[in-house]
Amino acid sequence: MSGSTRWGRWAIPLAAIPVIVLLAYGFRTDPRAIPTPLVGKPAAAFRLKTFDGPEISLEGLRGRVVVINFWASWCYPACYEEAPVLERGWRAYKDREVMLVGINIQDKEEPAKRFLAQFGHTFPNAPDPAGRVSVDYGVYGVPETFFIDRAGRIRAKHVGAVTDAIFSANVDRLLAERP
Amino acid sequence: MKRRAKFIVGGVFILGALGYLIYAGVSQSVVYFVTPSELMAAPVSGKTYRLGGMVQAGTLKWEPKSLDLTFAVSDGKTAVPVRHKGTPPDLFAEGRGAVVEGTWTADGHFKAATILAKHSEEYKAPDDGAAEPGYKELLRTLQGSSGK
Amino acid sequence: MTPELGYAATVVAFGLALYGSIASAVAGRTGRTALVQSSERAAVGVWILVTGCMLLLVYAFLTFDFSVRYVAINTNRGTPFYYRITALWGALEGSIILWTWMLALYTLIVVVQYRRRHPEFYPWVLSAMMGIAAFFLLVMTIPAPPFERLTPVPPDGRGLNPLLQDSGMITHPVALYLGFTGFTVPFAFAIAALATGRIGDEWITITRRWTVIAWYFLALGLLIGGWWSYHVLGWGGYWAWDPVENAAVLPWLTGTALLHSVMIQERRRMLKIWNLTLVILTFSLTIFGTFLTRSGIIGSVHAFSQGSIGAFFLGFLALVLLTSFSLLAWRMDRLKAQGELDSIFSRESVFLLNNVFLVAAAFTVFFGTIFPLLSEAVRGVKVSVGAPFFNLVNIPLFLGLLILMGVGPLIAWRRASADNLRRNFLMPTAVGVAAAVIARALGIANSLVLLCIAAVVFVTGTIVLDFLRAVRARRRSGDGWAAATLGLLRRQNRRYGGFVVHLGILVVALGVAGSNAWSLHTETTLGRGESVELGGYRVRFDGLRASEESNHFKVTGTFTVSNGVGSRDVLYPAKKYYAQEQNPIAYVDYRLGLIEDVYLVLGDFARDGSQATIKLQVNRMVSWLWLGGLVLTLGTGLAILPDRKKAA
Asked: Measured between CA atoms, how close is A112 to chain C, in angstroms?
């Protein structure tokens, strides 16, 4: 009897452990994220006219790893925080068969252009005036970033500001897959 | 010992009742989170779902007099017809994200009890404040009609 | 400059708090008083530095210093003066400052009050409190720095969330945090008791008043939160069992259990382990609440930012739970109860049952809140449980608690004789049953409301009976009515303060039952000049007008409300369009009444002002919640009056 109480008492602190483990498990899931059914599926084709003039289409980028970033000039601070990250990522990877496309949604042309000038973006950016591309990609809010593999399949989606680590981890992973 | 037994019986009774309440409560009010594709793959009528997706362009209809609101929620692959009675929430629009909670009905539509419009948490208006639909115009038409 | 100054102060304060915590723990082990004094000075230093941080941030808000990221996000040039001050706790980083400041303040009070008393406990109490402060300062340093610099400095900020631009939001977080942080003091004393091995009743006697105060502020914070939800959010309710609300009510439930169970220990030397467990749980739940709302692991309609802060809070929660329960397990040998339960019909048993019900309620709320996680971890299915779950499980528990509220204070200790039961409960029971019968005859058919009425009348009966008897006894010794009443309240302030708090809870309970059973609502579209009727009120739509306000654009509806007796009133519900928000904010207009509120929300409207869609509600007895809060305040005030020597 006394032996069991000597050890039994430690049951109280031990009981806390599964609760903590369960709560920690919560970090793995995001209750807000409605799982996108698009991951693993072929990315929807689009053809858009960039702010600089030339057209850009997903078709034309087949064989490369494509990163699509949906943003808006009013999205503050998240889009402002990730803007330098995107430009850095673009400069680091543009010679390695990687394409970065910015798609500007629910915005006006003038502030959008000011945004691009402010951050000195050198990768192609295009407005999505009818909102069709954002609907095809199931964009809930800005910013959202999609990572597409060489075969044109969506492989990852990131909601919120992208960090250097997230950008390079996803791109490196897709680059490592030989076609 | 007899007293102790009474307390134990009492404790077991309380625990049992509590367990039953929790079980009954969970089975009555559980809500399943699904995407349109998941719902349409195996819809069960009468079950409560929380359905998330985009309001499909060209499907939104609202009748102010009868408060009938109909639209389709889509995830890019499958669309679910939704019906609701009430005013659409402020941020609710075609091409925007929405989460609806309700039940699947036997006659093939989703009956929404509540609608939540999704909005991005980080938001800043453009500097000129002109992106909001027609502030000034609204101001003008309403000023023209007020005070009569 | 401000960001760097604030950050430096935070880091120094963190160092001081950490030092103070370790130094006083060493002092506790070795008895070196010089170290205790040194950590006292550290505690004062922490308070000064955190106060400085807060003032610095207020200054940044008032001067529109947008080089501070937090200021840029939570204010803009249009934000009115008062909201620029309260924007301080409008978001995560600032509310952590507020929390830390309150903690530092409580630590300071502990230093002032207990420096010369309780020399065994004191160093450990200081150590625990400063350790906790160190954690919050660490949060202010790494995952949630309020003084983060923003470059380039924007010309204008984003602005405070319009929903928070309300008087309720000024006071709600303050009350809530005073409650949350208040439980740190009893927790620190419990840790001191465990560390020193002096696990008698001393820590309970010292901290009783602290527990009452923390409990009261938490209750007040919950009520103000309900008021905010009711008059700002425009859905006409005050409680939705949202995870964020649940997180705040959890420590309140276990704190309520604690307030009652300590009485058993004081009187009968029982439940020692249980009381320590409750105080640890209550404090842990305040941390859990912050973890839940700030980690984003559970979806909530209250949008909060997410980040690494969740991991910090979870780590701290794990540390608190494991350390304190291990201490408890280590001291288990000394925690043998000296008394024991004699009978089921005794005050001890009733209090025990009250604790079982409260902890069961806390458990079910906790279970329902983390159910989505549990389900996903175990079965991989994304689900949640909604309000029906919480209502179904908690209504029986709360009804039971109401009845116990009447039984507990009057039933005899140890073993109640049949005579004691008859003398104290026959009349109140009869009156309670009679009240329900009369209510039924008057046409109230809702059985839950009838049960609630019976319970409330029963409890009121017991309180009145007890009080009248006591007054009569004093009258026999020669006092007049007034002198007898006042003397009784003053001499037995703890008992009668508790009774007044109980009355406050009864008023709230009636409000909850009544508003759920009898409120009416309708939603309709009216053309100009058309009317809708609800609950005896006729509401006519007279027109819309638009206006530009200091920081928003506003569309206001004019509605004339008349009731049958000819009194007329005009309501102006509106929609406010803020530049920084995607969606307009509904501005509810209402007329509050003791029996019913008229509550009007403007929904959609035609662009030319010819028609408007409205939500009209006649909410019954909601005001009783706020009245109950007032009664709670009076009762708590009475209960914590300084003790006086009892008359011989």
From this structure: 16
Which runs of consecutive H residues, i.e. helices, occur in chain B? 2-29, 36-41, 135-145
Nearest beta carbon to residue A22 from set C158, C295, C377: C377
Optimal mutation site among B29, B121, B128, interface C, most CBs of chain C within 10 A: B29
CATH of the domain at A62: 3.40.30.10
Tokens standing for residue A100: 């970065």
ipTM for the predicted complex comes to 0.83
- Indicate whether A13 belongs to any domain: no
CB contact under 8 A, B28 and C392: yes
How many folded domains does chain A comprise? Answer: 1
To the nearest whole Å, the CA of C61 is away from the closest chain A CA by 18
Residue B124 near chain A (CB below 8 Å) = yes
Q: Which residues contact C442 (CB under 8 A, 6 or more apart)?
A: none
Determine, for residues C582 and B88 on separate chains, whether the beta-carbon distance falls below 8 Å: no
- Prior bond to C152 cis, omega within 30? yes
A-B CB pairs within 8 A amount to 70
Domain parsing of chain C, residue ranges: 1-153, 417-518+625-639, 520-621
C299 pLDDT band, cuts 50/70/90, is low
Query: DSSP states of C570-627 as a string?
Result: EE--EEEEETT-SS-EEE-EEE--SSEEEEEEEEEE-TTSSEEEEEEEEEESTHHHHH
pLDDT at A89: 93
C401-434 confidence digits (pLDDT tens): 999 999 988 888 888 788 888 888 999 999 999 9
pLDDT tens for chain A, 179 residues long, are 344 466 778 888 888 999 998 888 877 655 545 456 677 788 888 999 999 889 999 888 888 999 999 998 877 677 888 899 999 999 999 998 899 999 998 777 888 888 898 888 999 999 987 777 877 787 766 788 999 999 888 998 887 788 888 899 999 999 988 66
pLDDT in tens, C116-137: 888 889 999 999 999 999 999 9
Query: For chain B, which chains pass the contact test of at least 3 CB pairs under 8 Å?
Result: A, C
The answer to whether residue A3 sits within a structural domain is no
Q: Which chains lie within 8 Å of chain C at 3 or more CB pairs, if any?
A: A, B
Whether B131 and chain A come into contact, CB under 8 Å, resolves to: yes
C149 and chain A in contact, CB less than 8 A: no
Q: What is the pLDDT of residue C560?
A: 94
Contact between A135 and B97 using a beta-carbon 8 Å cutoff: no
Is the pLDDT at B23 greater than 60? The verdict is yes
d(CA C312, CA C592): 43
Contacting residues for C25 by C-beta, under 8 A, at least 6 apart:
C123, C124, C127
Position C553 pLDDT exceeds 60: yes
pLDDT digits (tens, 9 = 90+) for C349-406: 899 999 999 999 999 999 999 998 888 888 878 888 888 899 999 999 999 999 999 9
How far CA B148 is from CA of B144, B145, C328, C543, in Å, comes to: 9, 7, 74, 8
The predicted pLDDT at position C567 comes to 77
CATH 2.20.28 fits C520-621, yes or no: no
Break chain B into its structural domains and give their ranges.
56-122
Tell which A residues from 121 to 140 touch C, by Cβ distance under 8 Å: none
Helix (H, G, I), strand (E, B) or coil at C77: coil
Above 70 in pLDDT, residue B133?
Answer: no
Query: Hey, are the CB atoms on C579 and B30 less than 8 Å from each other?
Result: no
∠ CA(A107), CA(A112), CA(A114), 5° rounding? 150
| Residue C269 to residue C337: CA distance in whole angstroms | 6
CATH number of B56-122: 2.40.50.140
Partner residue facing B122 (CB), from A34, A76, A137? A76
Task: Provide the H-helix boundaries in C31-76.
Answer: 33-62, 69-74
Q: Which residues of B touch A74 (CB under 8 A)?
A: 123-126, 131
**Is the minimum CB–CB distance between C69 and chain A shorter than 8 Å?**
yes
Q: Please list every residue in chain B whose beta carbon sits closer than 8 Å to the beta carbon of residue A106.
A: 131
